[in-house]
Amino acid sequence: MPNRYQMKFSARLRLVSRPALSWLTACAIGTFCPCADAAEAAPAAARRAELIALVRQDCGSCHGLTLNGGLGPALLPRTLNDKPADSLKAVILYGRPGTAMPPWQRFLSAAEAAWIVAQLQKGFPLEK
Question: Model pTM?
Answer without folding.
Answer: 0.68
